[in-house]
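User: Teach me something about this protein's shape.
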Amino acid sequence: MDKLDWYRQLIQELLIERAKLRSPSDPIKSQTIFDRECDRYQLVNLGWKDSSTRIYGCVLHVDIIDGKIWVQHDGTEDAIADQLAAKGVPKQDIVLAYHAPHVRQYTEFAVG
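Assistant: First, the predicted structure itself:
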């Protein structure tokens, strides 16, 4: 399997795994959104809380750009960048895009 296909598979597996963490009885659902053509992957939460408050929000947003994994947003406690690194993705191939470009040099991940 080539590197990009492996990255795509890992990202999708991690988002699906995360989506399954919600209880089936929870009125808030986690939904995966995969744009395989443009390499954009998201996990969103949606539903109704107490039948009067609409819940909708992006929990995770990951793109593959120029052969690197760009974590655009991560609203989780268990960082997807760490999960990807633990599965063997080199840290120099993971960009924490939610950090300003001038700050990325101080992380252990790629600058972009």
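Now, about its shape. Residues 3-106 form a domain with the TATA-Binding Protein fold (CATH 3.30.310.110). The chain has one domain: 3-106. If you'd like, I can walk through any region in more detail.
User: That's plenty for now, thanks!
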